[in-house]
Structures are given as C-alpha cells and as structure tokens.
Amino acid sequence: MPRVSSTARSLHREHTSTPALLRLSASAAAMNAVIPLALAVQIALLGRLHRSRGEGATTQAAFGLCVTSCGVGVTVFNFLVDGVTAKVGERVGARRWRAAAGRVRMAIAAALACGCVATGALLALRETLFALFAIEGSDVAVRARTYYAYRALGIAPQCVASSLGGCLGGYRRVHAATALSTTRAMVETIAVAATLTLSADADVVMRRIGIAYVLVVVAHALVGGALVLGLTPEGAPGPLAILPAKWARARRRGSDDAAGDDGDDGDGDALLAPARAGDDDETDAEEGWMDFACDGASMLIRSILLQGSFFGAMVVASRELNEKGLAAHHVVSQLWMLSAYVVDGFATAGTVVGSRLVGMAVAGDGRRGGGDADDDDDDDDDADDDDDDDDDDDDDDDDDDETAADVLPALRSACLRLRVFGVVTGLVFAAALLLLRDRIVALFTDDEDVVRTLAAPAVWTKLSLAQPLNALVFTLDGLAYAFQDFGFVREMFIAGVGLVFAPALTFAAVARAPSLGGIWTAKVALNVWRATVLSIRLSAYCLTETGFESVAERLRRGEADAARRRRRRRRLMRRRRRARVRGEGGLDDLEASLLSGDEEGG
C-alpha cells in the first residue's frame, strides 16, 4: 500500500472533504449562475412591463436574439474560464508561482485578443445574421438592431472579466469571484428595471439598457483585474508577479522612497517583482505560450461546436416557428442555461480541486525522481549564480511531496462525490420544473400563445427530465479539464456534433410540422453522447492507476522539456554577462552550441 505523507493527509482533509467540496461548489454555482439568472430576470421584465402595449413578445425575441448571437463571442472562448482555472490551478498546486503568473498574463492577453476579434466579426456580420434569422423588416429586427451594437461592444471587456474569473478560480479564490459576479448582476438588472420604469418607448429602452450593459461589464473587468493583482493564491507567500517589470519597479521605488528604504529587493519581493530580463522564469512564461495556445485551440473548437449547437437551434426556431414560438424558445434556453450554470458549480469545484491535486502529483513525482538528466550540465555554471534559481518551493522536505499514488485515492473520492452531487441537484431541478410549471411560465410571460407552446409536454416535460442528464454532463466536463484533457474533449465534441446533433436537428427542421420539442430533442441527444463518452474516459482511464500515471507523466515531460530550454538560455545569459564584463564580443563555441541546442529543443 502506498505511503501517504502527513502533508498529503492534511491537504486532502482540507480540500477534498465533503464540507469543503460543498462550500466550493455552492460558491462556484453562485458565480456561474448569477449572470444567467440576471439575464432571465431581464427577459421576464422586458416581457411583462411591455405587455400593456403588446410589445412584450417582440421585445423578448429581439433581446434574446442579441444576447444569444453576441453571447457566442464570449462563450465560444470558454477556455478563458475553465481552461484558465485548470492551467493556473495546476501551477499553483505544483507551487510554481511565477509560472502561474505567466499563465495569468497569457490569459489576459488572449482574452483581449479574442474579445476584439469577436467584436469586429459580430459587428461586420450583423446584417447577415438578421437575414439568416429571417427577421428583416419585422419589429423584432428594429428592436434588435438598436441593442445589437452595444452588446457586441461589450464582448472584449466581458472576455477579460471571464478570464480574470478563471484566474481567481485557479487561485482558489472563488468566493471573491462570486461576490464580484453577484454585484455585477445586481447592478445590471437594476439598470434594466430602472430603464423600463422611466421609459415606455421600446427603442429608447433598448438603447439605454445597451449603454448600461457596456458600462457595467467594463467595471466588472477593471475590478476583476484589481482582485487578481492584489489577492494571494492559496498557499503562496504573496501576490503573483502579474505586472510588467518596469511598472513593478516604479511601484517598488515609490514604496521604498516613502519608507526610506535603500531600494534593495528583499526576499519578500520575490513574487511581487516580475522576473528580470533573461530570467529563467520569464523564459518559462514565454515557452508556455505554445502549450497554452494548443490547449486553448482545442477548447475553442469545443466551444464553437457547443455554441454552434445553440446557435443552430435558434436559427431553426427563428425560421420554422413564428414569433411566439421564438419567444418560447428563448425562455427554454434561459431555463436550460440557468440550471446548467447552477450545476456547473460542481464542475468548477472539480476543476479547481482536481487541477490542484494533479499539479501536486506532478511536482511531487518530479522531485522524487531526482530532476532532469540535464542537471549535470549545469553544475559548473550554477555554482556561482544561485540567485537565478526558480522561486518555487522546491526546498520543501521531499517526504511531504505527494506522488500520483498519494493523490489518486482522494481524487477518485472527490470525483465520485461531485458526480453524485450534480445528479442529485439535477433531480431537484427536474422536480421543481414539473411541479411549478405554471408559476415558472407566468414569471416569463402572460402571452397565451407563448404559454401554450411552453406548457406542451414535448417541450416542458423534455426540459424537466433532461436536468439530471445535463447535470452529469456539466460535472464531467469540469473533471476532464482538471486532467488537462482538452484534446480528448475536442475530439468527443467533433464526433458528437457531427454524428448526433446535426442529423437530429436536420430531422427536426425538415419535419412536416417543425416543433420546439423536436429542436430540443437534438440538444438532449448531444448530451446523451457527451455523458456516455466522458463517463467511460474518466472511469476507464483518468482515474485508474495506469491512466493517472500517464496523465502525470505527460505533464511532467512538458515541464522537463521547458526546464531544459530554460537552463540553456540561463547559461547563455550568464556567459553573455561575463563576456560584457570582460569586454569581449561575439559568441564562443559553447554559446553557439547552446543556441543550436535551444533551437533544436524549441
């Protein structure tokens, strides 16, 4: 039986006990659900407060089209949340603080780039999308055109805010992210309610709530950035080095002048001060871009396919159903996503806890393995340059490092309990939807045609009974991310959409009498596929001894390759510094060989 260290037992009790998992899941569920809940409330407000003028269904349909269309520009980059949580959490679990800071910088940069690209693309495609939805010339198009531009302009700051929320999850500071998301949702909903109260003109209302949305989401991103800069990841000795080096130096100089210090950096500044130019940790961050980009591309494909399934369903609903049917479709979408985000709290907990345990296993096995073979090459050069050592906590007692064998029992237990929690929560949602159908429908609309469409057994019963299945799928997604299994998730989605969802949706669209129930049957079929494949992957591979060792070894090989490149560049930088001191120019044979080796290794 494998020996479990005292540190391992302590960490497992702290992070994977049932109370700890439930607290983390509840906070993550609130963080994930509060903004979709706010959207659901806003749709209900738009439908009910305009009923006196007969514009409720029209306004709901226009708002839903804009939210769904522009939401693709955010949710398609889901990697900025779940992937970032897994990446940062794995580095924090391995106690590689500057590497974690590098992942945060990558996440912010990727969020800005993705958000700007999505904004430009959606603004350029507005008229094309309206033609695709077959709403040109209708009142829905007039309302949607007013609101669409504002929703698109909010994509870039929303991507940044989502990415920063993922970073806080990797920090294991989910409660802070939850408080921020809750505040944002409340402010946004209050702004919509106030606008509806102050104005009865639908065009004015759509314009004002659009402006309010942009302002709120920008504030969300700014406050999220402040939290990521100021909060300390759980287990770290201080905040991570996120800011560029010149900004941090200026900030430290100002602090030193105010305190009367001599300006020397102490050990306490190791995390606050970004690495010097040429530092090996800075190199580690640069080299991590390829790994980050590859996994991000896998998640991007996954998210495009997932959001494409919602988008395709909306296109069929807008073309094959009337205005009332489209409004009913948006209500079902909001209820589907609301329950999804609530249950997704268990998925987030699985990603946060699982990635941390995986990182601990990778780091522990790596240290006990004695490091990399190339370490012998560094003996002479490293003897006089100890200040370039990694800032990680590698000096901890090896007896307290956890191996894959130490971590696996706790990981298995946590994964099982999270799946059970998710399914039970899904059953609660199913019961609530079935028992409270009339009351829930009345919250969204009092239009008789919309009510009749929603209350149909083919729609409401299907929505209700799908909840346990959906809950299992969402939880399995989060657990897969904990194992950094992004490539497998991508391939699973490609097969599922191509072999299951697309044929089912096509059948619903060409049916003699297209219906809302047929459209959502395609979504249920896709989730059956996802649940089956992910369950097999998790039980038959990731949580077996051989499979988990393979996962840890794959991640460890990536770390070893990066370490070898760091050492080559570090030795080269030292040689260059010595050459400058001696006043010599050019590269000697050793430097040339190092460069050659670095290029081959890269």
Anisotropy-based shape:
globular
Distance between the termini: 40 Å
E-strand count: 0
Beta-strand content estimate? under 5%
Unreliable parts: 258-270, 272-283, 370-400
Helix-strand makeup class = mainly alpha
**What's the gyration radius in Å?**
26 Å
How many individual domains?
1
Please write the string of helix (H) and strand (E) elements: HHHHHHHHHHHHHHHHHHHHHHH
Average pLDDT figure: 78
Helix content: over 70%
Described by strand count, sense and barrel closure, the largest sheet is:
none
Number of helices: 23
Description:
Mean pLDDT is 78; it is low at 258-270, 272-283 and 370-400. This protein is mostly helical and 602 residues long. The chain has 23 helices and no strands. It is globular, with a radius of gyration of 26 Å. Helix 3 packs antiparallel against helix 12. It has one domain (6-245, 272-601).
